[in-house]
What we know:
The chain is mainly alpha-helical. It has helices at 11-19, 22-42, 44-48, 51-66, 71-83, 96-126, 130-134, 140-167, 179-188, 195-218, 235-241, 245-265, 267-272, 274-289. The model has no long low-confidence stretch (mean pLDDT 83).
Amino acid sequence: DPKVDVLGLPDGVKFVFLDIGLASIIFTCILGQLTTQVNASHQMIDYINNYFALFTLYVAMTVEFSGVMHSSYLIQNILSAISGKPIQTNEPPKTGFTFAFFWGRVLMSLAILGFSLAVTLVALFNGDTSVSIKYPSISPGLAVFLLFFFMSIVGMLEGMQIAFFAVAKLPADQRGTSMFGKKTCNLLFAGNGQNLPGFMIGRQLTVVCSFFLVGSFTSLTIVPGEGNNIFGVSDGAQAFLNYGFQGAVITTILASISWQLAASAYPIAFLNNPITYVLLCVALFLEFTGLCAGAWV
């Protein structure tokens, strides 16, 4: 509510920091991500030498074992077949029950992803998402476009991170095969190499900002028990969907893992993309502003 007083701040400042969410974005970037990444990069062993790190690993392995995100493995296999690059793994070939269990989870993941997309798109067209409340002037069609636009931005930044580290090991004359590829590498690896960590900071700020916006498009505002449950699901199921499970599935697979896999298979193609150069400049500019410089303290 713009009429609510917050520390005596002017309305314009409240709009930028609270309504748009810049305060939450910076808070999440610095305390929730960049600070831990900086500490981990300098104290790698100490960072994982605790029970919380072990607990986090077990949670991540449990989520992977559940198969919810296994459709990303299908994307990995497709990209491997297209690129002609075999998947490097220490696991033995899947046979028998292991083969069936793996691909069964892939099919389950595809079904979950399809359902999540259906829920999100129907909610967007019905005006049952947070974006309809925050920005009522945005039409359903525009909301769908913006959802995939911001997910593409996140995906490009996720892929760029993989591609940049992949080409960092290559000789300078092999890092780009087009004008934009060479411009990207010249900017990224210029001077003493500070632009690479600078990109990581600017990238993180852009990703968090995009995820906050995507969250507005995927979070549901349907109140269970009023007869408006999406697809006629039970009140309990509607309450579960209101937590944003479908948004987490969509963004993780379509806005993160898929792009990372594509970049690992085609790093040079990512560098040659002019959008990569534009996003690199944007990320470096955001880092230059110092909004997240507190992470270095």
